[in-house]
Design a protein that fits this description.
- This protein has 283 residues and is of the alpha/beta class.
- It folds into 2 domains: 30-115, 3-Layer(aba) Sandwich (Rossmann fold); 141-264, NAD(P)-binding Rossmann-like Domain (Rossmann fold), CATH 3.40.50.
- The protein contains 9 helices and 11 strands.
- A 6-stranded parallel β-sheet has the order 1-11-8-7-5-6. A 3-stranded parallel β-sheet has the order 3-2-4, with helices on both faces.
- Helix 1 (8-28) packs parallel to helix 9 and helix 6 crosses helix 7.
- The termini are far apart.
- The protein binds guanine.
- Guanine (GUN) binds next to strand 4.
């Protein structure tokens, strides 16, 4: 029997329905949630991601504004823009799309966004709360979306062995913290480019989260039969096709598998909508 293919798009749409009810309620109290997305340059993939975020805002009734800055914008110009949005009370969420071209320091930009408007959850104060086991801040969207998918599938997380492949600031590190946090209670191994026995670690895991950005890295003989495999990767093959970090053959072994596209991506956007609503509620 093959894996259940987890329909991230459908789960995300049902979450967005609840969010739109929350938006309507908040609007009746006089607060209209408003997300501002800044895009620097013309990267085609970023354009697609940003358009998808705007469409989600429309579905949820969240006001969205797109600020387009030129490819050669300086760090000072980007920081000035963030600063002006920080002090604009009509703006509840600020997101600067990554990657930012040129010499702009993304960490400096993430740190400049007010933690209360940091709907990406990348500000050191929000990541720091995560370390302290405090989930009242704005959580990074992709890891939050993955946890929701696991819960939606009824996956037993308490005591489960989870391998997180990748240690990025955006996915791997916060994902590991969330899985190991009190109340989720998984046991996590962080796997990275210098890890020994990666295949063995994966084979012993009940949950494998692949976020290395290496197309089809995770093979079927790496996976324990019945395991839950989450594919966070999204790259293009030389032939131009979208590819996740998990080989499609894994579906023959795994119990659950998230597809690319249509898995983690829509969940990330739903969590962005949820963070924007939360930020507006707390404004
Ligand atoms: N680029 C790709 N994914 C993301 C994301 O979740 N947030 C931001 N700001 N940029 C991205």
């Amino acid at each position: 029997m093959g894996a259940v293919i987890v329909d991230g798009k459908a789960i995300a749409l049902s979450i967005e329905k609840t969010i739109s009810q929350g938006v309507t309620q908040l609007a009746s109290e006089g607060v209209s949630p408003h997300l501002v997305v800044i895009i620097v340059g013309e990267d085609p993939a970023s354009r697609v991601y940003v358009r998808n975020k705007q469409r989600a805002c429309e579905r949820c009734g969240i006001e969205s504004t797109l600020i387009e800055m030129s490819e050669d914008s300086t760090q000072e110009e980007v920081l000035d823009m963030v600063e002006s949005l920080n002090s604009d009370d009509s703006v509840h969420g600020i997101l600067v799309q990554s990657p930012i071209p040129g010499d702009v320091d993304e960490l400096a930009v993430a740190s400049a966004i007010s933690p209360r408007k940091d709907v990406d959850g990348f500000h050191p104060a929000n990541l720091g709360r995560l370390v302290q086991g405090d989930s009242s801040g704005l959580m990074p969207c992709t890891p939050a979306g993955v946890i929701r998918m696991l819960e939606h599938s009824g996956m037993e997380l308490v005591g489960a062995k989870a391998a997180v492949l990748g240690r990025s600031r955006i996915v791997g590190m916060p994902m590991s913290l969330m899985l190991a946090s009190k109340g989720v209670d998984a046991t996590v191994t962080i796997v990275h480019s210098r890890t020994h026995d990666v295949e063995l670690i994966c084979r012993e895991s009940d949950i494998v989260i692949a976020a290395m950005g290496r197309p089809h890295l995770v093979k079927s003989d790496w996976v324990k039969p019945g395991a839950y495999v989450v594919d966070v990767g999204i790259s293009r093959t030389d032939g131009g096709e979208l590819a996740g970090d998990v080989d499609p053959q894994v579906a023959k072994v795994a119990g659950w598998m998230t597809p690319v596209p249509g898995g983690v991506g829509p969940m990330t956007i739903a969590m962005l909508m949820e963070n924007t609503l939360t930020a507006a509620r707390q404004s």
